Amino acid sequence: MYGQAARIAEKIGRKKFADLITEELFKEIGMTNSDFFTTANSSQIELAQGYLDVYGELHPVPFELSRRWSDLCGANCILSSAVDMAKWLMFQLSKGKNQDGKRVMSEDALTDTHKPENPLTLSSISKYFTKPNVPETFSQTGYAMGWRTGHYRGYNMLTHTGSSWGYKNMITLFPDMDLGIYTAMTGDDEDFFYRYSLHQYLADMYLGETPWLNSTLICSFPEPWFPKKKQRTKPVINKDLKPKRNLDDYLGVYENPAYGRIEMFILDEESSTNTSNKLIAEFGYVDLILYPKKMKDEFYFETDGIAAMLINFGTVQFKETNGVIDKMRIPTLEPKDPPIFKRIQGPTIPTVSDPMLGNSTYDDILPHETPTERPKESSTRSTNSNVQAETKPKQRTRGKTQKSSDSSTVNEKVQSSKSV
Prior knowledge:
Layout: H1 2-13, H2 17-29, E1 35-36, E2 51-54, E3 57-60, H3 63-69, E4 78-80, H4 82-93, H5 107-114, E5 118-119, E6 142-143, E7 148-152, E8 155-164, E9 167-174, E10 179-186, H6 193-207, H7 215-220, E11 252-256, E12 260-267, E13 278-283, E14 286-292, E15 298-304, E16 314-321, E17 324-329, E18 340-345, E19 351-354, E20 358-361, E21 395-396, E22 416-417
Parallel strand pairs: 4-22, 12-21
Antiparallel strand pairs: 1-4, 2-3, 5-6, 6-7, 7-8, 8-9, 9-10, 11-12, 11-18, 12-13, 13-14, 14-15, 15-16, 16-17, 17-18, 19-20
């Protein structure tokens, strides 16, 4: 959604989104220490290192991953500092003026961004911040243009959270009290407990209220009001388990209209790592190393390369028709409705028999496939489309695998901070 909004802005403004934000907002507000993941030079900025907590182990997030993850700049792109974010808060609270009193945006236009457009239903964490479960209610009842609207202790409130790999932050505005709060952190805050409780504590301090939280309770939340969630235990995976069928049967390109393409290949390298001769799923700039499960045609996966440690021990499931692998799905991407990827080409295409089609190659009966849509492949075809030349399964050789240990518009997701 935010990526689409950024694209519309580019069409109307006839410039790149980053240029529009820099010229129309950053320069006018005086945010001179803000940048974009997509354009920043990592050697010339003081960027806090982001970390992932993987079953209790901290792993640094590579800058290149953050850059690639920010390709849709409207959704996940902006770098800023605490000083610049203070200027952004004052711009919001002054109804469109910069710190010198110069009007940057009309009051009506800015006010419109704070008005709720859609009601919000109770979220999964609402009960943790609602009376009588806890002493005070921190409500979020509407969604404006990037802002959640609600109340705390009877005060009108706007909030926005930003989350990216290794970085978490939050903005809270109390317009009637001329109060703005911004915090940024590296690491994980998966349930938002730390950010939400910290902002309530800070709000109480500045609003003259007696805090119902303290440093101990912020760190232990949701205890003592609710039992703490059980810590996830690292799965034990037998990485030497043999697959129930030849790995060649899974090779090829799989496609989903919304998620794009995934290419399956075998990593063939002389290395001491356990990735040699393993099935690899290349999904954009993310590589998934697949390890067979006991269940036929099911694999565990762990991420590799610049995305190492991001999402590990998810599941990839392959499906067959007439003994031929023709689909795959990854429940980890969307557990409630896992996307299905249809196989659109393979290096060795078996012949299948269908009473409605007669004998044909596997490629001939796949949907969404035309000769012009096919990328180049290593296999060769004869002039008869029903004959597929024998080729070796696609394999790749590369160096040792690398193991490294969401701002919508500007007020949407300021994802990471140069000052923490």
